[in-house]
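Please, why this fold?
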Amino acid sequence: MPVQADGRFDAMSLVALALLIAECWAVSFVIKIFNRNVKLKSRHAETLKSLVCNFIKYVVVIYGLIFGLSILGVNMVAVIASLGVLGLIVGFGAQTLIEDVITGLFIIFEGQFHVGDIIAIDNYRGTVTSIGIRTTQITDAGGNIKVINNSDIRTLVNLSEVASTAIADEGISYNADLEKAEQVILALTEELPEMYPGIFHDRPTFMEVEELADSAVILRVVANVDEPNIYSGRRILLRELKLALDRNGIEIPFPQVVVHQEK
């Protein structure tokens, strides 16, 4: 018996317990380092790696708990036998947990999304950084991490599966030469893929006049970009449109107010 008659633990039991804790900690540490530093080529493989690492961590905890109690002198056979009745009691309160696990398995095997995908769930948009047995972690553009129970993922949009569109609207004065402005913008769209090859994979499309606004003629340019570049692509389009129109003397108006004063 690991416990002496006076209730104190013998030295061997304490050593065994310490070794067990060290073993569980070492395995968890190695799994954490592996999951963080080893990057696989495909998103599917990266997702499976994340799931397996999460599963091993749960196994390590259960292993440590069972053998730790055994070292402390707990009769695990009696405990396991009593789990039949206890399981019925806990089962009613663990329905959400079971649903999370089952949903997580469906997410993995159906390939609805993978680690590295950009998805939108209930108007929250971010990159999937981890898919676990129970939860999924999503990181938005500001670095904020949202943890969502797998069973709460009812509807989602996988933005990595479709081409995204960067849209830039630029206004010119009603007094400006519209045809000249159109030629300038068309020439710019031909140059953009060479200027920013990592952003624009093909030539952006000039959609011509989008709107006749109060003080400007609105011209629109759209470009197909990868989802992570949708905001940077729009900023680049606006910048280059402004510079190109300025170089050619085409006025970009700003809101003006005319005040009439009675004499």
User: Anything to note?
Assistant: The helical segments are 11-37, 43-71, 76-93, 95-110, 178-195, 230-247. Residues 3-7 have pLDDT under 50 and may be disordered. The radius of gyration is 30 Å.
